[in-house]
Design brief:
By secondary structure, the protein is of the alpha/beta class. The chain has helices at about 155-160, 205-210, 230-240, 265-275, 290-300; strands spanning about 5-10, 35-40, 55-60, 80-85, 85-90, 95-100, 105-110, 130-135, 140-145, 180, 185-190, 215-220, 250-255, 280. It has two domains: about 5-135, GTP1/OBG domain (Spo0b-associated Gtp-binding Protein, Chain: A, Distorted Sandwich), CATH 2.70.210; about 140-300, Rossmann fold (3-Layer(aba) Sandwich).
């Protein structure tokens, strides 16, 4: 199961105490600085699954200073991997701290505490920075397959990218976004939207947020539909209700399951849909030529 939200607490390491100077001894050294905490981007979308309800991560503490003016060893840094597309939000203020948009994006999130001064006025080290964070994942993909439940999105993803997504002839077979790659371009299969998705009906909001960073929408409409224009309008309405800018994204309509109809019927449905979107591609996963036509468009 894809976890797309987590709450964690991070803390830089505590600085080590300074070594006091003895009356007749050598100067004591400073304490070592605490370790830092870094976040780094990864292609693994399941990395938020590693976090529990109240996870706490801390870098290493600095060591105490030593005699002869020797500084204590610094604490070890830690690095936490997060999926590309993760927003890091301050839990207290709700403000965005950082977004991970590329693999190997690296961000210093918590600095370690300074080590204490050694000598006659030796002092304790300082605590490291502490952050309470919300991690929110939104998929970053070149293309997003959207549409009503059972519109053939997962089957299409499997055929184009050799993904292995579960498919079945009933709604909501897909309960979480799935990804596939075709010639270096990422396709995301977004679970089926239903009327009221924009206000949370079904798992609507959980699904819709993953469309925000998708480049081009591949709007799948089944040729089995009783009213293709109505189906199209319903999904478009939910997009605009959730965030108006979603309805402004570049879009291609894919008329799916065309093998179930005669050619004339497919032509009529295609003409109908071209009244609402200029680019309409009739496709059947059982028709090699139609799949190649779609792949040609994706390559461009």
């Amino acid at each position: 199961m894809l976890i797309d939200r987590a709450e964690i607490t991070l803390c830089g390491g505590h600085g080590g105490a300074g070594m006091p100077k003895k009356p007749k001894g050598a100067d004591g050294g400073n304490g070592g600085n605490g370790g830092d905490v870094y976040l780094r981007g990864s292609s693994n979308l399941n990395l938020l699954n590693q976090f529990g309800p109240v996870d706490f991560f801390s870098a290493g503490n600095g060591a105490m200073g030593a005699r002869n003016n020797k500084t204590g060893k610094g604490g070890d840094d830690i690095e936490i991997l997060l999926p590309v597309g993760t927003s890091i939000i301050d839990r207290k203020t709700g403000e965005l701290v950082f977004e991970i948009n590329k693999i190997d994006d690296r961000f210093l999130i918590c600095t370690g505490g300074r080590g204490g001064h050694g000598g006659i006025t030796a002092d304790k080290g300082l605590a490291g920075e502490r952050k309470n964070l919300i991690l929110s994942l939104r998929l970053i993909a070149d293309f997003g397959l959207i549409g009503l439940p059972n519109a053939g999105k997962s089957s299409l993803l499997n055929e184009i990218t050799n993904a292995n997504v579960k498919v079945a002839n009933y709604p909501f077979t897909t309960l979480e976004p799935n990804l596939g790659v075709y010639e270096g371009k990422c396709l995301a299969d977004i679970p089926g939207l239903i009327e009221g998705a924009s206000v949370g009906r079904g798992l609507g909001i959980e699904f819709l947020k993953h469309i925000e960073k998708v480049g081009v929408l591949l709007h799948c409409i089944s040729s089995e539909s009783e009213d293709v224009k109505k189906d199209y309008a319903l999904v478009r309405h939910e997009l605009s209700e959730f965030k108006p800018e979603l309805s402004e994204k570049q879009e291609i309509i894919i008329l799916t399951k065309t093998d179930l109809l005669e050619d004339k019927a497919v032509e009529m449905l295609t003409k109908t849909l071209k009244k609402v979107c200029k680019k309409v591609i009739p496709v059947s996963i059982h028709n090699h030529e139609s799949l190649e036509q779609l792949k040609k468009v994706l390559r461009k």
